[in-house]
Write a structure and sequence with these properties.
The complex is a heterodimer of chains A (248) and B (271). Chain A is an alpha/beta fold and 248 residues long. Chain A has helices at residues 6-16, 30-41, 69-74, 81-89, 131-137, 170-174, 211-216, 236-247; strands spanning 23-26, 47-50, 54-57, 77-78, 96-99, 103-104, 110-111, 114-116, 121-124, 140-144, 181-185, 189-193, 200-205, 223-230. Chain A is globular. The two termini of chain A are 25 Å apart. Chain B folds into 2 domains: 3-103 and 155-265, Glutaconate Coenzyme A-transferase, CATH 3.40.1080; 105-153, no CATH class. Chain B is 28% helix and 23% strand. Chain B is built from 8 helices and 13 strands. In chain B, the strands form 2 sheets. In chain B, strands 1, 2, 3, 4, 5, 9, 10, 11, 12 and 13 form a 10-stranded mixed beta sheet that branches. In chain B, a hairpin with a 5-residue loop joins strand 9 and strand 10 (173-175). Chain B is globular. The chains are: A alpha/beta (248), B alpha/beta (271). Chains A and B meet through helix 3, strand 4, helix 4, strand 9 and helix 5 of A and helix 4, helix 5 and helix 7 of B.
């Protein structure tokens, strides 16, 4: 038993998800921390790919931006942005994409564009960045997000990035080649597409988290798997490695 | 052959009110010194083009130099909001800002089409997103396979400005580290300026570097330290503390203006 914080549990669970992955595309922030942790604790050969053009980066610290110098210095290859998207991402060469989101809905569609009306936003968010094509073309997508009703919403203010669109079959109709979101890892648990392959269902809770608490933190009536898993608590090794990484 | 001139002369010659201007650099080699010189020379009504309008465009937008912004990600990477960008879009301060936003893949392909002197580029993208209703993208059938593909229009900026590590006496430019879309931006633009950390007698080949021949560039200007608080791989380091502190400086209109007055407008251009 370790006394990991909910943030630490989330990051460790995300890192475990990459234990047998070959290549991962990484957004900035917690997805980046989790992927670097995976290289330390469970998958030293994991290839980290950042949209700045660094393929096979081996950062010793968590970079502030996706373009920090250490990423280029340690990469197997450094390519331009056009090549990154055309040859590597849109050509389907990357197995898993790790993304964050300001808002997501029950079909794991993402909003990173605006809160409120597009023409008169109450909060203007950064915008799409690479996410639409990353989520369309990578083998699968894992979303790392804070579990609050403001993040997991009934209805997106803007659909920036397609997850499972309007439901089963949507990705095929749109011609999106990757599998799309296969998991949303939050600080409370893990959501995965249910039997229809599209709508998110609670499949795992972190230790000590009740289903009611997860439901209260979710903006839509959340389906719950019959056989709900409980997260294996982070090991002392995982927590120590994460804390050491964040202290660098 | 690129002419080698001072930064202030270069900006005065190339950038005019109302121009579309692309100051590129994808987190690395961002041409801050040149952007600041554009502000000091009082250029207005610019259409600013940039994949990642980070602190530099936050500054240019907040100073009222832009009427339009073409972009794909307007954030302070790893830190959060760009407050001047947000203030312009949420409150119209200091002026309303028209926007055209894309995805990174779309913008990179628009530059590639511009550099290739093609009218458009094709990609697998945008499908199913709300971007389709709010930006310039069309869908076409591949003439060979029938696959439905997104088409985006070429970018042809009036001026492209990028920063690089070094240039030789002929104005041949070499840059290394994260290459972004600088080469595409220079080749897509009608006029181009490359600022460099240093002049060298001759370029020495470096692994993974990009060389842009001087005859494909209009002007080259020395601007040592000209990518701060971004960085020039191998020569300067990214000032992450400044990126963090920008949130505090920029979140208040008066504090922002005072900072710009002191650190940008009152500062002299590189000789």
């Amino acid at each position: 038993m370790t006394n990991a914080t909910s943030d630490e549990v989330q990051t460790v669970v995300a890192a475990r998800r990459l234990a047998s992955t070959r290549t991962v595309f990484i957004g900035v922030g917690r997805p980046s921390t989790a992927a670097i942790l995976s290289r330390i604790v469970n998958n030293p050969k994991l290839v980290l790919i950042y949209e700045s053009g660094t393929i096979g980066a081996k950062p010793a610290r968590v970079p502030l931006s996706i373009g920090d110098g250490e990423l280029a210095e340690t990469a197997d290859a450094v390519v331009g942005v056009a090549e990154m998207f055309n040859y590597w991402i849109c050509a389907g060469r990357v197995d898993v994409a790790f993304l964050g989101a300001a808002q997501l809905d029950r079909f794991a569609n993402l909003n990173t564009t605006v809160i409120g009306d597009y023409e008169h936003p109450s909060v203007r968010l950064p915008g799409a960045g690479g996410a639409p094509e990353i989520a369309a073309n990578c083998g699968e997508v894992v979303i790392v997000a804070q579990h609050t009703p403001r993040t997991l919403v009934e209805r997106l203010d803007f659909l920036t990035t397609v997850g499972h669109g309007d439901g089963p079959g949507a990705r095929a109709r749109l011609g999106l080649r990757g599998k799309g979101p296969t998991a949303v890892i939050t600080d409370l648990g893990v959501l995965e597409p249910g039997p229809d392959g599209a709508e998110l269902m609670l499949t795992q809770v972190h230790e000590g988290v009740s289903v009611d608490r997860v439901r209260e933190a979710t903006g839509w009536p959340l389906a719950v798997a019959d056989e709900l898993r409980v997260t294996e608590p982070p090991s002392a090794h995982e927590v120590a490695a994460l804390q050491a990484l964040l202290a660098r | 052959m690129a002419r080698i001139v001072s930064l202030s002369d270069a900006v005065a010659e190339l950038v005019r009110d109302g121009d579309s201007v692309a100051l590129e650099g994808f987190t690395h080699l961002i041409p801050f010194a040149a952007g600041h010189e554009v502000l000091r020379q009082g250029r207005r009504e610019l259409e600013l083009i940039r994949m990642t309008p980070d602190i530099l465009y936050d500054q240019m937008i907040g100073m009222g130099a832009a009427r339009r912004l073409v972009f794909s990600y307007g954030g302070n990477p790893g830190v959060g909001s760009l407050y001047r960008f947000r203030d312009a879009l949420e409150n119209g301060w200091p002026n309303t800002l028209e926007i055209e936003e894309h995805s990174h893949a779309g913008m990179a392909n628009r530059y590639t089409a511009g550099a290739s002197d093609l009218p458009c580029a094709l990609l697998r993208g945008y499908a199913g997103t709300d971007l389709v209703a709010h930006t310039e993208v069309r869908f076409v059938a591949c003439p060979f396979t029938g696959e439905r593909l997104a088409a985006v229009a070429a970018l042809r900026p009036d001026v492209a400005i990028v920063h690089a590590q070094e240039a030789d006496r002929e104005g041949n430019v070499q840059l290394w580290g994260i290459p972004g879309v600088q080469k595409e931006a220079v080749l897509a633009a009608k006029r181009s300026l490359v600022t460099v950390e240093r002049s060298v007698e001759r370029l020495e080949a470096r692994p993974g570097s990009i060389v842009i021949p001087g005859w494909a560039i209009d002007l080259v200007a020395e601007a040592p330290g000209g990518s701060w608080p971004s960085y020039s791989q191998g020569l300067t380091r990214r000032d992450n503390d400044f990126y963090r502190s920008w949130a505090e400086i920029s979140s208040d209109r008066d504090r922002f203006r005072a900072w710009m007055d002191e650190h940008v407008l009152a500062a002299a251009a590189a000789p």
